[in-house]
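Annotators were shown the component list below and the corresponding predicted structure, then asked to write short factual statements about the assembly.
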Amino acid sequence: MLYDLTLEISYDYATPANSGRHALRLMPAHIEGEQRLVSGNIRLSPGPTERRDRTDFFGNAVTDVVYRKSHSELCFRLKARIDRTAMPAELDISPPLKALGRELAAIQSLGPEEPVHFLAPSPRLPQSPAFAVYAEEHLDRSMSTISAVESIGRALHRDMTFDVEATTVDTPALAAFERRHGVCQDYSHIMIACLRSVGIPAGYVSGFLRTIPPEGQPRLEGADAMHAWVRAWCGIEIGWIEYDPTNALRVGQDHIVVARGRDYGDAAPVKGVLRTSGSQTTSHKVDVIPR
Amino acid sequence: MSLDETAKEPEYGLLKSYQPYPGVSDELLDPDGQVRPVWRPFLNHLNSLTPDEIADRFARGNQYLNDAGVYFRQYGHDGAHEREWPLSHIPVVISEDDWKVIAQGLVQRAELLEQVVADLYGENHLVGEGYLPAGLIAESPEWQRPLVDVYPKSGHYLHFLAFEIGRGPDGRWWVLSDRAQAPSGAGFALENRVATGRVFNEFFAKANVHRLAGFFRRFRDHLVDLRDETDSRVSILTPGPLNDTYFEHAYIARYLGFMLLEGEDLSVKDGRLMVRTVAGLKPVSVLWRRLDTAWTDPVELNETSHIGTPGLVQAVRQGSVTMINALGTGILETRALLAFLPRISERLLGEGLKLPNVATWWCGEESTRTYVKEHAETMMFSPALSTSLPFSSAQTDFIGRDFGKFHKGILETWIDSQNQNLVAQEAVTLSTTPAYHDGLLVPRPMSLRVFLARTSNGWEVMSGGFARIGRSEDASAIAMQAGGSAADVWIVGGKKPKKETLLHQTESPFFKSQAGALPSRAADNLFWLGRYVERAEGAVRLLRAYHARLLETADPESPLVAQTADFLESVGVAPTSAPPIPEGLCAMLQSAVISASKVRDRFSVDGWLALNDLAQTANGARRAMRSDADVPRAMGLLLRKITGFSGLVHENMYRFTGWRFLSIGRALERAHRMADLLSVFTAPDAPEGSLELLLEVGDSAMSMSRRYAVSLSKATVLDLLAMDPKNPRSVMYQLTDMKEHISVLPDADEHGYLSDLARSVLQVHTTLAIATAETLTPETLTDLRDQIGYLSVELTDAYIR
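Structure shown to annotators:
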């Protein structure tokens, strides 16, 4: 499926910012066999003093921009065309949950795709017994790893309420979980924490959803802004699968991957430091149109 | 000094009750209870002193530490407190032969660690071949992903290391912990040395104790050689004054002549690391960081850090700066690594560890857990990824035997559940060394911190170190936070130490400071230090005059007293009666202390102590004083102390750019206040006695009577206090002073074009120069005051923002 994608993120500063440095993870990824980036560019206004592209540890494309001039507004615009491949449904040959640890222990590599990076608590996702208790309630140890992932994902979707007012980008996952309210970032963080607590390596994916669903299907939650979902490691044979807890479904052709990491901090679309004293307002527009 | 000719074993009264613990080595006594030869000369000396002499000498060492401003920050339930530095005055004496074994072992270990960290951020053979578990490294917060595949510019990851070592019951030394992130303690080792050298001065001067200065000089030369261009700087990056080892950062910066910087002083431009200075951005190509990796860059590392430099990792990645040590080297401090290093040494170096580390088991494998459970009684347990020193965290580290037999089953279950998150280590027994207690020597457990630096000749070991001495026989109470103390380490024997050409005896600073730019933040703090101190002086003079008049009239409503009170209120020190010293005055001095604390590397210890004394005197007087009548005397005392401080600073401070900012601050404040005072107290409706008050506050009564035969008039007062170019209290004098300082600041005069600031100060100066007593009305004086005040804004815009 071919998509045309546009994204616009803009900021208004109450008092002008003297300088700023931002790392942008906005460009859709090129993933062999799953997703092809046909073309894409990021435009910035005002134009930055410095701009440089690099790839981070997890293989995400990063654009570093630096401003040294005073500015009171800032806008990032992304235009891209992506070819997303449909993924055939796999046979569930994932090991039972109780055997997953043995497969993990056999890994002798620190490559970015290895599950060893995704089991420990990460900067934005400290451990908490609340997640472990919840996760244990929704699985048993003889289940296959894939069934365990889906079971926890479905449970969260049932127990959580999608609510854009309940949380902000910095709300800890535990706080959102206690309220059982949140947006895709919270759903994803909570699910990752639950999976890790039962020994399933899990990571965070940021990306886009198609704006208008195919005919006859419901519009998905999270299509108005950048979206987020979860990837989980289901053994050496299967590797990674992706699951969208906000919509309770396995990720398919409607999802476009931008960046992957351990939690939001690794994949944040805009991360940076600004020298300004005042407040700021942000707006965010997304369009993902099939061609 | 001959050691063994003594026919009879001397009687050491000091050792009357010196009883080493069974099964523990002792540094002083050999296993047969005989004093080791290496200790004898020192013990003979100590034994020749009376208890009173010893007490005097110890006091001398303490006085030195006190005067040098060495303190120790203790963290308690109610926050941090500065405590006296806990020096154990008896040095640890180690023979050169013992030291050679330690040094060889640690140099080998340093080379091993360099290869390990290079592998962890590079090829990953150790994980790939099963020498290290992938999960252990991947789960450590100290393995910094943004630094993977970033090769250090200098070719080396490690340049400065510390090792914590101890001596086991069999007399062999063990490595307890590796410090590779940002090792501290070398500066404290120097201070311990100076203090202990003063305690035993005649003995030390003749004793064959290895000196420390050469080590620092060669490391300093190595860092200087690592620079790209001769105009770039070697700097030390500190977390700031709130850090518990900030004293050491400032001390080492002063000692080695390096710039002391905080994260906000630095900026990354086009991938190059730069320091913001009063002369613009200047390159920094070597940065000795005393800040843990995670906090150094909020864009790529810990995003909550407010003490880092955005873009620093990018600067490192582009090879524009050498970090001492490389970012990410904190992974080497991971406790579980000790379990794997013996095998890794065989793999990487083709030989075993020359100096073993404490036996360690990582509990991530079932066979290891079985062994650990069987020997749990004698093991210490701690988190596998812990990077703290052994015994430093009572919450997480504990010894199996303390768990008790009763709980054995529970302990085993717990070991299984902790799995890869747990390490077990042989519960070490540390050797004991003498400490002086109530007139006698007593054995106390000890560990040593040894420092290694890379120099042009490879790794070099500091011949000495930092000893931690336990408070009781319990080795776990060795941390200073737990009441332990610190001692100097004397390596004795071999060739007489070579005379180091410069001041080697006192181990004092011997490097010429790198000439160059002043960081903007330091300039800002010096400028405000000058302003606050001068502001306090003005307030003190005025308060003294106010209270003197209040005493005479006993009427707060009398016109002159009331006007003075109003003026004091307008400058933030409204007079109060109980307590009679206003809080505003103490706040001004406190602000001065805060500004000074941020630039401690830039001015003398005496100046720092004088300023603190001043602030404490004001606080003390405010607490103690109850009657207005005492105020003039207290103000007199404060005034003398302020003058003393200013004298110290201005007499002793090197005439560099920093001194100019301090001087500009002082001159600006004085000129501003005088213009302000004149505008009020020369007004046509000013109460009687105003002119006398001006002369008193302006400390110019004598000049007045010498210069003017005529009686006191408004015109003569304005002439003396506003326009007289020779009176240091006049506005004109201070403006001239500022003009001169500003004219030599960077960019003040670019090809004949004055900077905005230089032009403004010239303008104000000229306005006053062409004024006469008649044209200096309250309105023009107010205007003058505001123009002077605005110079502060212009100065900040030009040099500090």
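Statements collected:
1. The longest strand of chain A covers residues 2-17.
2. The interface with chain B takes residues 18, 21-23, 50, 52, 54, 56-58, 64, 66, 68, 104-105, 107-110, 114, 116-117, 119-120, 123, 265, 271-273 of chain A (CB under 8 Å).
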